[in-house]
């Protein structure tokens, strides 16, 4: 009887500790989301094609497709999405239905909060400072971050996603530069403090960004060693959103352009909005 009482008490204390950790993590999510949202300019300048007149032709095509003249330049983007997220490997992707919301604030950070449906549900969030995921909403299965490898990998992710969903964040300015690499491809380089990430943007004849690819610092490999390796995304289903033309279907994955590629992330966007905008 005494053993049963002690075991029950230990279990209860353990569950209480996990619940408290969950509350603290969610509070951190909200705080970071609010911090990034507050960076949205309150009196934004409006897009003029002359702003990109000196860029390589594919970059000009990208911007003039993505942003209509006179559109307020709002770099902080919020996205809601559904889709599929792989918990497996190429030969057995084990896709799970997922629902997520995200804020992008390049170069300052991002938060991606996700949960899967079906099977053993996984939920949690990614940011520039952490990766925290749980099964059954409570039991931690991943708690990463706070080290240079995670910071560098996360920076690559949200710099790449700015090409997809936050073109206003990539207009030329201090820390943002463009160069041509082909007739239909331009390379944007984002610099922020000690971090640097280049992303290649391939556009179609009208300027739709159909592919974003880059070398990402990642340990998503059999050796579980951080190194530069190809990552990329394809985009489709472009729609008008407050003066922007943005993709509502995105597929992305590691080892992009190689025989090992498969999209572990397949997203169908349900809503895009701009933090703080009326």
How is this structure best summarized?
With 278 residues, the chain is of the alpha+beta class.
Can you offer a commentary on this structure?
The protein has 278 residues and is α+β, with helices and mostly antiparallel strands. The protein has one domain. 23% of the residues lie in helices and 42% in strands. The protein has three helices and 13 strands; from the N terminus they run ααββββββαβββββββ. The protein has a 13-stranded antiparallel sheet with strand order 6-5-4-3-2-1-13-12-11-10-9-8-7, with helices on both faces. Strand 3 and strand 4 (122-127) form a beta hairpin. The relative contact order is 0.16.
Residue windows where pLDDT falls under 50 for at least 5 positions: none
Shape category: globular
Structural category is: alpha+beta
The helix tally amounts to: 3
Strand order of the largest sheet: 6-5-4-3-2-1-13-12-11-10-9-8-7
Bin the strand percentage. Answer: 35-45%
Taken in chain order, the helices and strands follow as HHEEEEEEHEEEEEEE
* Number of beta strands: 13
> Over all CA atoms, what is the radius of gyration?
20 Å
Give the overall pLDDT as a whole number. 92
Percent helix, as a range, is 10-25%
Largest sheet: 13 strands, antiparallel
**End-to-end span in angstroms?**
62 Å
């Amino acid at each position: 009887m005494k053993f049963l009482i002690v075991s029950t008490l230990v279990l209860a204390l353990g569950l209480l500790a996990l619940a408290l950790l969950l509350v603290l993590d969610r509070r951190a999510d909200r705080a970071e989301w609010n911090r990034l949202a507050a960076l949205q300019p309150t009196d934004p300048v409006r897009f003029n094609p002359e702003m990109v007149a000196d860029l390589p032709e594919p970059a000009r095509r990208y911007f003039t497709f993505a942003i209509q003249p006179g559109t307020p330049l709002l770099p902080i983007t919020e996205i809601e999405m559904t889709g599929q997220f792989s918990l497996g490997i190429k030969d057995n992707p084990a896709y799970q239905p997922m629902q997520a919301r995200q804020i992008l604030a390049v170069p300052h950070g991002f938060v991606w909060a996700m949960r899967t449906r079906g099977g053993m549900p996984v939920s949690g969030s990614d940011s520039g400072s952490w990766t925290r995921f749980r099964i059954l909403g409570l039991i931690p299965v991943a708690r990463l971050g706070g080290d240079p490898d995670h910071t560098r990998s996360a920076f690559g992710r949200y710099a790449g996603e700015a090409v997809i969903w936050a073109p206003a964040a990539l207009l030329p300015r201090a820390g943002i530069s463009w160069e041509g690499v082909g007739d239909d491809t331009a390379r944007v380089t984002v610099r922020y403090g000690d971090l640097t990430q280049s992303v290649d943007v391939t556009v179609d004849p009208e300027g739709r960004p159909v592919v974003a690819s880059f070398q990402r610092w990642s340990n998503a490999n059999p050796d579980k060693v951080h190194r530069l390796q190809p990552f990329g995304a394809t985009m489709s289903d472009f729609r008008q959103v407050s003066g922007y033309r943005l993709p509502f279907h995105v597929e992305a994955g590691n080892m992009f352009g190689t025989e090992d590629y498969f999209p572990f992330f397949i997203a169908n966007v349900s809503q895009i909005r701009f933090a703080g905008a009326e």
